Amino acid sequence: MASRNILVVDDEIGIRELLSDILRDEGHIVRLAENAQVARDERLKLRPDLVLLDIWMPDCDGISLLKEWANAGLLTMPVIMMSGHGTIDTAVEATRLGAFDFLEKPIALQKLLKTVSAAIKHTEHLAHTEINLSSFGKSAVIQELKQRLEQLARHKNTLFLIGKKGGSVPLCAKFLRPQNTPWVALTDYEKLVTAPMEILEQAREGVVFVDEVTKLGKTEQKGLHLLINKSEKYGVRVICASEHGLPQLIEKAMLEQALLQTLAGSAVKVPCLDEHKEDIPDLVNAMATLMVEASKIDYKALDVAALNALRNADWPGDLDELESVVQNLLMTSLEDTITQADVQRVLANFQGQHVEATEQHMPLNLDQPLREARDEFERYYFQYHMRLVKNNMSRLSEISGLERTHLYRKLKQLGIKIKG
Predict the structure, then answer these.
(1) Domain 5-125, CATH 3.40.470.10 — does that match?
(2) CB burial class (10 A; 0-12, 13-18, 19+) of residue 151?
(3) In 14-78, at which residue ranges do the beta strands (DSSP E only) sit?
(4) CB of 346 closer than 8 Å to CB of 332
(5) pLDDT range class, residue 285, cuts 50, 70, 90
(6) Quick one: pLDDT at residue 354?
(7) DSSP class of 47
(8) CATH code, 277-359
């Protein structure tokens, strides 16, 4: 058997040392933890292939620690629970939470080795973990969102999620996916017209997810409406999404009327990250841990000041931007602990342009008549956009919403010269 990293968690020193000796004799690398807090730290540093976890510990019981790891997406390794006076109920609860097996103390040598061997083989079949809705912490905003999604899902087979691009809409969609069922993220929209039943067959008892429903053409929207009407026969949940709110969809007629009417009845607004900033520290820690798991880079903890700096920042790019910042912090910070200075350094790179734009003071004199102030604003507005589009009048016409003849007249009136 190949050597594996094994973490033994038990508050009794005699048991820790006994298990350590046995497992090291088998060629494994063993780390020891006497309580839950040490186990948390070792779990992040060691990234063990297997954990032997005692149920009864002074600071936090093993079941609670197992649940904590499961909720944070950290059960990337099998966990064997141990107890000197376990019950069937405890064993069932541990298994439900994701434990691989349950051993009663005193543990027989052959039973231990057989269970450890089976658990190590099991690691090959463990699914890759990723951020999920349960990683968002305990804010009222997210708790209410989960309840609203669950309530709708009990009564509706089709849901419509409205939220910011780069945000948590895909996570909400996956939250609504029944466990161990197909997930079909639709990218070939033409199949909605040519083979809608094939899509439903592929997703039977699972989920079809349409990321931005307004990207569909009129014919494809009609195909989606047909698919929704047939989905119940296949046990399929159809989840559509858009960054456009219902008023905008209605006003601009972006969707076929029948489809819009179907989706509007199950629409849910997904909050952006700036609406639940209190969850950012938990989310950052979960992201960092999963990145370490996936890429095998060294784990670096974020100190309290660093987490506070991230919580207090603005996130125009929502979750995607936060994830990029966390990855950059892990890869570029030089010390073992990420500090507030590190966060400020990285945020300056990621959000510098955004901060500049929001903090820049427009050179506008408000102590003048309205007409002169309006002209000054318009002059600033057009000069600003002309720089951005490099004096391209077609683009400036699109941005300003002015027909080109009117645009030239306006620029002349404001005394703005058009450079060739």
Answers:
(1) no
(2) exposed
(3) 29-33, 50-54
(4) yes
(5) confident
(6) 47
(7) -
(8) 1.10.8.60
pLDDT at 302: 92
Q: Which CATH class is domain 134-271?
A: alpha beta
Residue type, 116: V
Pairwise CA distance, residues 7 & 74, whole Å:
14
Tokens of 354: 């955004």
Token digits of residue 9: 């968690």
Mean pLDDT of the chain: 87
Which of 304, 313, 336 minimizes the C-alpha distance to 325?
A: 313
Distances in Å between the Cα of 137 and the Cα atoms of 67, 115, 278, 292 are 14, 34, 8, 20
Residues 6+ apart with CB under 8 A from 62: 9, 36, 53, 54, 55, 56, 81, 82, 83, 94
Helix axes 88-97, 62-71, angle to 10 degrees: 20
Is the pTM for the entire model greater than 0.70? no
> CB of 165 within 8 A of CB of 316?
no
3-state class (DSSP) for residue 417:
coil
Is it the case that residue 357 has pLDDT exceeding 50? no
Beta strands in 141-294 (DSSP E): 158-162, 183-185, 207-210, 237-242, 267-269
Before 316, cis peptide (omega within 30)? no
Beta bridge partners of 183: 207
Q: Which amino acid is at 364?
A: L
- At position 192, the amino acid (one-letter code) is L
Average pLDDT over every residue of 179-206: 92
Burial code of 217-241, b = ≥16 C-beta within 10 A, e = fewer? eeebbbbbbbbbeebeebebbbbbb
| Most confidently modeled range among 116-120, 221-225, 366-370 | 221-225
Mean pLDDT of 328-334: 93
Nearest to 306 by CA among 276, 289, 330, 324: 330
